[in-house]
Recover the amino acids of this structure.
C-alpha cells in the first residue's frame, strides 16, 4: 500500500504517521520507506461457527503480517467487536517496531476476530477459536508466525489454537503459540509479563527524569494488562487511585484496595458495579491529577479533543496506540513525557520470546529467572531509548521509532529485495 492509498484516519493512519515521522528524521531511503510501509501479507477469513442452539453464525477474522525481515512474524490475536482490517494492520505494524526496539528476532503480525467473546459460551468460544485457527494455519508455524493472547483472548484460547495446529500436523508443536498454560509448554511469568514490563518502564523513566519512583497512578483498562498492573504497581509502592473498564471507572484518592478490585473483575464483575469506591467515567479518569497515567485499554483514547485535559506529567502506554499523533504533539508541547507503547508494553512479547525459545529447546526457566531476564531486557531497551532521546533532542517516542525503524531498515538493506 503506497502513500497514494494511505488512510486519512483511524489506527492504521496513526501507525503510518508515526512511521513517516521516524523515516523523515532518520532520512530513510525512499525505496526502503516504500517497502517498510507495506504489510507483507493480509488474510481475511469468513467462517461458520455452530452455536449451542444448533444455529450457524458466520464470523470474520484477520491475520496480517507486516514485516518478517528480522525473523518469524509475532503478534497477538484479538477478539473484540470493533476488530477490523484497519486496526489489525496498525497493530501488526506496531508489533514490527516493538520487536525491533526490544531487539527481538521477530517481525510483526497481528490477528483478530470481530466478536464480543463475553457473549459466547465456553463451547462456542472453543468452536470459534478452533475454526479461526484452522483458517489461518497456512500462515502459522513456529518458524513462520507465532500468535499470542491479546484483548479478549487468554491462555485457554492459546491452548485451543496450539492443539488445533498440532492436530493438523500430526504431532504436538508447543512453540506455535505463546501465552499458553504452563502445563502444555507455557512460560512461568508470561501472564503478567506486559504489566510487569509496564512497571519496569515506568520505574526506569521516573529514575531518569529525577522524579520519585512512587506516586499516584490511574489505569485505563481492566483487562489482563490493566488489572495485573493494578496489583504490581500497588505492590511496588505506587498508589493506584483509579482504574476503569468499558462500563466506567472507580476512584479512591487514598488508593484502591487492589486485591478486592482484582477479585471483583476476575470473578466477572464490571467496575460500574463495584461498591467500595467512587464511580467515575473513562473521560474523568484520563483527566485525573496523577503522577502516572497508564492508558491500557484500546487505541485512540487520548486525542486532540481531550489531550488538553490530561493532567498527568508522565503517560506510560499500556495499550497499543492509545495516544494519537495529534495528541502526542499537544502533550509534547506541554512537556508531558510519553513512554511509547513499542517500549512500555513490550514485556509481553519479550517473555513470549523467552517462551518460544524454551519451547524450541524443550528447556524451561523458573519464574524468578524469567522476571529477572525481563527486568534486564526492559532496562537495557529503556536506557537505549533514553540515551538516544537525550543525544538527539527528541522525545521518547521519536527515539524509540528511530531505533526500531533503523534496525528493520538495516536488515532489509542487508538482505536485499528478492527479484
Amino acid at each position: 500500500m503506497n502513500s497514494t492509498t494511505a488512510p486519512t484516519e483511524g489506527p492504521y493512519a496513526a501507525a503510518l504517521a508515526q512511521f513517516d515521522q521516524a523515516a523523515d528524521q532518520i532520512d530513510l531511503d525512499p525505496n526502503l520507506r516504500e517497502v517498510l510501509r507495506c504489510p507483507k501479507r493480509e488474510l481475511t477469513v469468513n467462517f461458520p461457527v455452530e452455536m449451542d442452539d444448533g444455529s450457524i453464525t458466520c464470523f470474520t477474522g484477520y491475520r496480517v503480517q507486516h514485516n518478517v525481515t528480522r525473523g518469524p512474524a509475532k503478534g497477538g490475536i484479538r477478539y473484540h467487536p470493533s476488530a477490523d482490517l484497519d486496526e489489525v494492520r496498525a497493530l501488526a505494524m506496531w508489533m514490527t517496531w516493538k520487536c525491533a526496539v526490544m531487539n527481538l528476532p521477530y517481525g510483526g503480525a497481528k490477528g483478530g476476530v470481530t466478536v464480543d467473546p463475553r457473549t459466547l459460551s465456553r463451547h462456542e468460544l472453543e468452536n470459534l477459536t478452533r475454526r479461526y485457527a484452522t483458517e489461518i494455519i497456512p500462515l502459522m508455524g513456529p518458524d513462520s508466525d507465532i500468535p499470542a493472547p491479546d484483548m479478549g483472548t487468554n491462555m485457554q484460547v492459546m491452548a485451543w489454537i496450539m492443539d488445533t495446529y498440532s492436530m493438523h500436523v500430526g504431532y504436538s508443536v508447543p512453540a506455535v503459540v505463546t501465552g499458553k498454560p504452563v502445563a502444555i509448554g507455557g512460560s512461568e511469568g508470561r501472564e503478567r509479563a506486559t504489566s510487569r514490563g509496564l512497571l519496569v518502564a515506568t520505574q526506569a523513566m521516573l529514575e531518569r527524569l529525577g522524579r520519585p519512583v512512587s506516586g499516584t497512578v490511574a489505569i485505563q483498562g481492566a483487562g489482563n494488562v490493566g488489572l495485573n498492573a493494578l496489583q504490581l504497581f500497588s505492590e511496588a509502592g505506587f498508589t493506584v487511585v483509579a482504574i476503569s473498564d468499558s462500563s466506567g471507572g472507580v476512584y479512591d484518592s487514598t488508593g484502591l484496595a487492589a486485591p478486592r478490585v482484582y477479585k471483583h473483575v476476575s470473578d466477572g464483575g464490571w467496575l460500574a458495579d463495584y461498591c467500595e469506591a467512587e464511580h467515575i467515567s473513562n473521560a474523568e479518569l484520563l483527566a485525573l491529577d496523577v503522577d502516572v497515567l497508564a492508558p491500557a485499554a484500546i487505541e485512540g483514547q487520548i486525542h486532540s479533543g481531550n489531550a488538553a485535559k490530561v493532567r498527568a506529567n508522565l503517560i506510560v502506554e499500556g495499550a497499543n496506540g492509545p495516544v494519537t499523533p495529534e495528541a502526542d504533539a499537544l502533550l509534547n508541547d506541554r512537556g508531558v513525557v510519553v513512554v511509547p507503547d513499542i517500549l512500555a508494553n513490550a514485556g509481553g512479547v519479550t517473555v513470549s520470546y523467552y517462551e518460544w525459545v524454551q519451547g524450541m529447546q524443550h528447556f524451561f526457566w523458573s519464574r524468578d529467572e524469567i522476571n529477572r531476564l525481563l527486568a534486564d531486557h526492559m532496562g537495557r531497551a529503556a536506557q537505549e531509548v533514553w540515551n538516544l532521546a537525550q543525544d538527539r533532542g527528541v522525545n521518547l517516542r521519536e527515539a524509540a521509532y528511530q531505533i526500531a525503524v533503523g534496525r528493520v531498515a538495516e536488515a532489509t538493506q542487508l538482505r536485499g529485495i528478492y527479484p
Q: What stands out?
A: The mean pLDDT is 95. The chain has 14 helices and twelve strands.
